[in-house]
């Protein structure tokens, strides 16, 4: 619904022209906005409406409008399916691992980079560590496979030379190692890029605080905990809220690409990859949509809860 | 100068060591892949190729650049990145400029519509079915149209446009320019850095997208290099190539099979990586700014 003009301080005459006339008068700027808005509606809002098929037995032949409604059938099917336990366990474990390791890692890197006084060294470390963020997951997964492979994989070469192992290990076929590999790869890819925000927050700290602390005899190590960390806490909390909202995004591209070996299915299947597998590959559209919607509802709940806690602690997202 | 205590000096040494280790661990996999791509495949299979090629060869790249499918995939990726970035940036900038106008009727409503999409989405399956209903399956346009408008980029553009001095636009309007004229003659020329930043990010997205094509494209002639590379890494195609090579090399057994699936996939991977590495210095120049504008809005 179009709104009336936002209040200008001086209104020379009352709004007398009809909305339509005023709309036509500014048709040039409306034409800047409306085509793009149409695309937003088509590609974002139609799928949102389409989520309702989770409550249907959607059939491609009948289409969305004619498919019969079934209530919560697909949700119940998911809760009772034999896949439910494994998928939920993997989702929760992988996302918690990613949260507790992947979230602090960039903060730690930023704190370390801040202690480096040699600008040349700092720039080299930054340039190198940002690079993997810009690589596709296909490339990253390819590098991981190459590093870990039994065929001239550098990790196997290193372990053999240090006499830790006799024979090369096929790391990506061992279910017990998959979570570690997945989480390390994620940290490897994003640690540098993630540190940028925290470095910027650190750069904003008033240098006189460090001088005062040094006068009082605080060591550099102590200054990190007494000045740097408390000063960037607001930024850390905002990113923590966002990370909690993303908690159920345990992974998608990384898991699809790293868990190629079928023996990893039991430890690698998370909600998103499960939706992909049953939805796109097995064409069980309504069921997969229901699973995805279940996840979205929990995510919104988590985000709201995290924001509530943060607001009570004095900072908030909205 | 304040002298560092013993503890602080130990800390500094440890930090330098850890950061050196991090830089090495980040750089080495790329370097090793590059080395393997220039090493004879048979030799690599013997193991022990790490920092430097042992049996230097260009054969791997020879095969990659003679494979019509890979070349085609490479050009699809370039076309997608060029067309996708140019159209998306232009449309999104126009969109943002319109929304930056205070007199725009429905402005608040339009903004709310956009912002909601940043928090909610229909998810994979409804989007997939929509694309199919729209007849975009197996079409080049599936790369372009769904990602034409980026709400995220729109908000960054809009913030930037709102910061432009109003006087410039007014003087252009007195000279008789309409809003479109002002946009193309005044606003765009003033927006160089923000256009560069967002174009680079958009281009990186387009170049790297492999998942979309893997579900929307089934004809091999339209697959971009990343999706093709994924199939190569999962070794569907390589064995194929090797089989062709074997039949071509029948009779000259001595020369047969000095390449392996590993050496070939590393060479392909390097080809898919090069464009990113080439633009990386420019990306790096701008992205810190981009990330910071982005996080202001969060």
TrEMBL record, chain A:
One of its GO terms (cellular component) is plasma membrane. PROSITE patterns: ABC_TM1. The chain crosses the membrane at residues 31-55, 92-113, 134-157, 177-203, 224-248, 285-310. GO terms for biological process: transmembrane transport. Keywords: Cell membrane, Membrane, Transmembrane, Transmembrane helix, Transport. The keyword Iron does not apply. It is found in: Cell membrane. It comes from the Bacteria. Residues 88-306 form the ABC transmembrane type-1 domain. It is a multi-pass membrane protein. Belongs to the binding-protein-dependent transport system permease family. This is Sugar ABC transporter permease. It comes from Paenibacillus arenilitoris. The lineage of its organism: Bacteria, Bacillati, Bacillota, Bacilli, Bacillales.
TrEMBL record, chain B:
The chain crosses the membrane at residues 12-31, 74-97, 109-128, 140-161, 182-207, 264-283. GO terms for cellular component: plasma membrane. InterPro entries: MetI-like, MetI-like_sf. Keywords: Cell membrane, Membrane, Transmembrane, Transmembrane helix, Transport. GO terms for biological process: transmembrane transport. It holds the Pfam family BPD_transp_1. It is found in: Cell membrane. The keyword Membrane applies. Belongs to the binding-protein-dependent transport system permease family. This is Carbohydrate ABC transporter permease.
């Amino acid at each position: 619904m179009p709104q009336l003009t936002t209040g200008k301080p001086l209104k020379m005459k009352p709004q007398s022209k009809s909305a339509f006339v005023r709309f036509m008068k500014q048709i040039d700027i409306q034409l800047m906005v409306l085509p793009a808005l149409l695309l937003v509606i088509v590609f974002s809002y139609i799928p949102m409406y389409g989520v309702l098929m989770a409550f249907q037995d959607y059939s491609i032949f009948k289409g969305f409008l004619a498919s019969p409604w079934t209530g919560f059938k697909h949700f119940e099917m998911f809760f009772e399916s034999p896949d439910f336990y494994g998928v939920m366990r993997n989702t929760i474990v992988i996302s918690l691992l990613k949260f507790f390791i992947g979230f602090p890692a960039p903060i730690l890197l930023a704190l370390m980079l801040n202690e480096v006084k040699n600008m040349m060294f700092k720039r080299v470390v930054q340039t190198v560590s940002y690079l993997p963020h810009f690589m596709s997951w296909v490339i990253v997964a390819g590098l991981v496979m190459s590093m870990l492979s039994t065929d001239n994989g550098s990790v196997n070469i290193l372990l053999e030379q240090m006499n830790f192992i006799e024979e090369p290990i096929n790391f990506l076929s061992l279910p017990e190692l998959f979570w570690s590999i997945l989480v390390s790869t994620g940290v490897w890819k994003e640690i540098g890029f993630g540190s940028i925000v925290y470095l910027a927050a650190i750069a904003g700290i008033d240098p006189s605080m460090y001088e005062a602390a040094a006068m009082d005899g605080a060591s550099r190590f102590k200054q990190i905990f007494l000045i740097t960390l408390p000063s960037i806490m607001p930024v850390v909390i905002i990113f923590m809220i966002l990370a909690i909202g993303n908690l159920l995004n345990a992974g998608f591209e990384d898991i699809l690409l790293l868990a190629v070996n079928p023996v990893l299915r039991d430890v690698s299947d998370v909600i998103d990859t499960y939706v992909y597998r049953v939805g796109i590959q097995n064409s069980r559209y309504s069921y997969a949509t229901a699973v995805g919607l279940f996840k979205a509802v929990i995510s919104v709940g988590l985000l709201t809860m995290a924001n509530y806690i943060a607001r009570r602690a004095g900072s908030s997202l909205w | 100068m304040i002298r560092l205590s013993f503890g602080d000096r130990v800390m500094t040494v440890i930090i330098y060591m850890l950061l050196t280790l991090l830089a090495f661990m980040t750089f080495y996999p790329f370097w090793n892949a590059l080395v393997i791509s220039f090493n004879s495949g048979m030799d690599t299979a013997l193991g022990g190729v790490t920092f430097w090629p042992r049996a230097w060869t260009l054969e791997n790249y020879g095969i990659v650049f003679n494979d019509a499918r890979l070349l085609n995939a490479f050009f699809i990726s370039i076309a997608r990145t060029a067309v996708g970035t140019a159209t998306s940036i232009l449309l999104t900038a126009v969109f943002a400029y319109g929304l930056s106008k205070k007199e725009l009727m429905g402005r608040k409503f339009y903004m709310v519509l956009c912002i909601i999409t940043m928090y909610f989405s229909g998810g994979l399956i409804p989007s997939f079915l929509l694309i199919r209903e729209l007849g975009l399956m197996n079409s080049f346009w599936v790369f372009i149209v769904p990602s034409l408008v980026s709400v995220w980029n729109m908000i960054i553009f809009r913030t930037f446009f709102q910061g432009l001095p109003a006087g410039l636009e007014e003087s252009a309007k007195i000279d008789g320019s309409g809003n479109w004229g002002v946009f193309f003659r005044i606003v765009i020329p003033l927006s160089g850095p923000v256009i560069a930043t967002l174009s680079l990010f958009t281009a990186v997205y387009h170049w790297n997208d492999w998942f979309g094509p893997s579900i929307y494209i089934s004809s091999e002639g339209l697959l971009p290099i990343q999706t093709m590379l994924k199939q190569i890494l999962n070794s569907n195609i390589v064995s194929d190539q090797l089989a062709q090579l074997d039949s071509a090399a029948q009779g000259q057994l001595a020369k047969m099979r000095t390449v392996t699936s590993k050496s070939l996939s590393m060479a392909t991977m390097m080809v898919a990586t090069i464009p990113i590495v080439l633009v990386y210095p420019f990306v790096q120049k701008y992205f810190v700014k981009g990330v910071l504008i982005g996080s202001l809005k969060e």
